[in-house]
Amino acid sequence: MISPLLYIGPDALTDGPHRSDENLRVFLSSKKEKSFERMRLLLLFGLFMSSTLALMPPVVRRTTQSRPSLAPLKSTEDDDGYDVLGTVLRAGPKPALVRLTQADKYERSVELYMAKEGCSRSEAQGNMDAYFTNANDWAYQKLQEEKGAPKYDYARANMAPKQVILTLTWTAIVFGIIAKIFFFGGW
């Protein structure tokens, strides 16, 4: 006798001798539930990892004897820069992911920009965040500034209280919809 799970014939999806419509519905729904459960676990794992990475201390700049200082920095009160949450609020998740996953690249580019422009760490971070978000727009803005356009302050971009509240509200709405779809079984 042929096993019902291995039977593939003209009556496999109909009321054949080995699999009825009810059995087929149960088989397909259990498969759907398993894939749905995997998706839930994957999303939970992603949320867990992102929340634990956000709580980590900021990356400490390394200085070694073999690597001399790039240039004297302007002494301002905001030389410490801002954390990953500041990056997310100013420029979105893309530069924050670069900052978390490629910390050395991010730090080198910030230090190089500080040395080249002679600016504060916050200004350099804002510019590198904008660069990692969209390099073409950032380069275009810099070219326009060289031609006489007003300088855009990337260090304070999107930090007005109204903008921060709007960003947090939209984030809560989007995550609420995602949670409803994935965790509570659909719309």
What is the element layout, followed by pairings?
Layout: H1 21-54, H2 84-91, H3 93-101, H4 103-117, H5 121-133, H6 135-146, H7 161-183
Count of individual helical segments: 7
Strand content: under 5%
Largest sheet: none
Helix content: 55-70%
What is the helix/strand order? HHHHHHH
Total separate domains: 2
Structural class: mainly alpha
Structure write-up:
This protein is mainly alpha-helical and 187 residues long. The chain has two domains: 1-55, no CATH class; 73-156, no CATH class. 61% of the residues lie in helices and 0% in strands. It has helices at 21-54, 84-91, 93-101, 103-117, 121-133, 135-146, 161-183. Helix 2 packs antiparallel against helix 3, helix 3 (93-101) crosses helix 5 (121-133) and helix 4 (103-117) packs across helix 5 (121-133). The chain is elongated.
Question: What key attributes describe this structure?
Answer:
single chain, 187 residues, mainly alpha, 2 domains, 7 helices, disordered N terminus
